[in-house]
Amino acid sequence: VFASALHGWGFTIPTLARSLFKSKTVPLKPPLMRQYLFGDFRYNAESGKVLIWKQSGGSGKPMFAEFALEPLWEIYEGVREAAMSVGMKSELFTDGARGNGSSKNKKSENTKIEAYTSGMEQVISALQVGSTAPSIISPRLDNDSTLPKTPQDLQQILSRVGAGSESSIVSAVLRRYRPLSDAILDAVCEAGPSPAEATLNYRTRALALQIPQSPGEADTVTAEIEEFKKIQEAVRQCNPGDNVPTVAHVCKFTSTSRSSITDPNLPSLSPDADPPSANMIMGIARVLSGNLRTEDVEYHMFGPRHYWSDPVIPKQRIRCYLLMGSSFVRVDSVPAGHICAIYNLEALQLKTVTLCDRKECMPLRGFDFRLQPLVKVNVEPVLASDSETLERGLLKLSLADSSVEVTATAKGERILACLGEIHLEQSILDLETVYCDTNIKLRISDPITSFCETTDWFGNEGDFDKFFDDKSPPLRQTVIPPYCDEEGLEYANRGRCRTILSGRGAAISLRAIPLPRSVYECLRSKKLVEGSENDLITVGRALSCGSDDAPLEMSIVLEALLDSLDDFDGNGNALLESSALRKGYSVIAIQSTNGEV
Question: What secondary structure letter does DSSP report for 57?
């Protein structure tokens, strides 16, 4: 897609080919023309043939430059010339812009560009080539008259949208005759698979239902499994029939104001509520099979952790809405393969939910990105009377943003966890201005840091004895729940620590033991030192050097230590690898440049 988000225009090669064929600019069939438009080819209007364009010494321009880029440039140039002719300073071009005119003239408040202004005739001429609006390129309609042919036609368009400056005129003209939204939709239709094809061939795992585990009676389970297989097959085929099971999956929630919703039967607000500021939580859903209906059917709600043996399945009537940009329009039904918005799911307090008109369904597998929030803060209202409003707002924020985690502690704290500082700032802003019914003032604590440990080199030889003779009890966090259940702290005792990385992808185990001076001398000299016998045996037992059945020998311990030695310094510290590291079963330890591990 060739586009400008600033001015809202865009086009693709297929739509440009259809436009040139419909306007008879290039009399080639669109499937054939699209092969030459974005290549080293030029069009000879006299002979009506497409020839190879040579960069050096060749005549003419490439087809893409002539029919795609040049009309756009002429529109920009024509609007710029019109702006400078009425004394405006150019907004489209900075230093180095082509064309005549003084850029020192200041724009008057009452000065406007009109279609009769000098330079706009160039815009009208350029619009005749390459327009990709659906009303222009439709093969079933003859709508050539919709293109402005005269300044009067163009002035009607500008007056309708109130365009009078450079940027507004460029946006008004190009968004109408080279619309970006249609170009994006056209590209999706050209390159993307259909919903049925995507379910069968491309998203076979993500758009499939979880497999049930059935511990019930054999006959009952067999009948339920058969019904589940029918639902599963309907989802796999993306069947929109009326007699097939209806399944839809809500992947996320979003907040919108009631003013953006077109629904004459929408339940009214309470008398003391402010209609423009009242927000509603809408679930964005994809219909996987059947037809999703408004208020006609009570649908079973399956959360992501639903089990086949759950005795109670929530049921709810819903309202379906068609997404029209930032607006929501109520519809009676939505067939399979479409995306819609669903209202009346807020009470479920689930971030994702699968809807089905039959109880034998299972939730969608979906994706598991394993993103864990890193930044945690305590959120509380400045006024105690706003506590209930804050709790409702936190619930809506948690539903709308799947990356946000909201928890409550035994102390009454409300912990908001986000992916990072920027995510946290945006979440707090949305909480204050969008998800709370009234604007409330919040008190945000400093980021909460989880308890963790690290290792460091001994500063001097005296630290050996101090560490070895330490008789202090284990840390409070390692023995008192719930602290001992967090971050693997139950293992953090007497120099041991084990923590699980975010996402549970790996675990790191660390152990620090006192290294006697005699053992250090053995490692440095790579031989047994007099008086190191007992210390070597102690270290060998701590590091499990040798077998459990046979008694340890000093030579065996020293050989094992030298084999696992990774690094040591002049202060009596050594870094050893475990057997799992040396055998390649784990990741090797990493030492930083400043001496910390």
Answer: T
- Report the alpha-carbon distance of residue 445 to residue 341 in Å, rounded: 35
Taking the C-alpha atoms of 374, 378, 381 and 387 in order, what is their torsion angle to the nearest 10 degrees?
Answer: 90
What are the φ and ψ backbone dihedral angles of 547, each rounded to 5 degrees? Answer: -85, 160
Count CB atoms within 10 A of the CB of residue 277.
14
Name which of 40-44, 68-72, 257-261, 532-536 the model is least confident about. 532-536
pLDDT at 552: 76
Alpha helices in 442-584 (DSSP H): 462-468, 517-525, 533-542, 554-564, 579-582
The pTM score is 0.55
Query: Would you list the DSSP string of 120-167?
Result: HHHHHHHHTSS---HHHH-TT---GGGS--SHHHHHHHHHHHT--SHH
Closest by CA position to 18, among listed 37, 2, 3: 37
From residue 371, give the alpha-carbon distance in Å to each of 184, 416, 418, 488: 30, 15, 10, 19
Which string of b and e fits 499-525 if b means at least 16 CB within 10 Å?
A: beeeeeeeeeebebebbbebbbbbbee
Taking the C-alpha atoms of residue 376 and residue 370, their distance in angstroms, rounded to an integer, is 17
Mean pLDDT of the chain: 78
Cα-trace Rg, the chain: 35
Tell me the mean pLDDT in the region 306-330: 86
Q: Say which residue, 110 or 423, is predicted with more confidence.
A: 423
Strands 261-262 and 327-331: parallel
Both structure tokens of 305 = 């952790």
Question: What b/e readout covers 185-199, taking b as 16+ CB neighbours within 10 angstroms?
Answer: ebbeeeeeeebeebb
The tokens for 177 are: 């005759």
* β-strand partners of 53: none
Residue 191: both structure tokens together: 């390159």
Q: Which of 138, 136, 132, 213 is nearest to 179 (CA)?
A: 132
End-to-end CA distance of the chain: give it in Å, rounded. Answer: 50
> Which residues neighbour 251 within 8 Å (Cβ) at sequence distance 6 or greater?
284, 285, 286, 352, 366
CA distances from 225 to 208, 246, 298, 524 (A): 15, 17, 22, 69
Residue 170 host element (H or E): helix 166-177
293-326: b (≥16 Cβ within 10 Å) or e = bbeebebbbbbeebebeeeeebeeebbbbeeeee
Paired with 301 in beta bridges are 355
| Runs of H (alpha helix) within 433-516 | 462-468
Give me the amino acid identity at 526.
K
Task: Please give the helix or strand (H or E) that residue 322 lies within, else none.
Answer: strand 319-324
Q: Identify which of 505, 236, 209, 232 has the alpha carbon closest to the alpha carbon of residue 366.
A: 209
Tokens of 67: 């029919």
Nearest to 292 by CA among 162, 189, 284, 542: 284
Taking the C-alpha atoms of residue 228 and residue 222, their distance in angstroms, rounded to an integer, is: 10
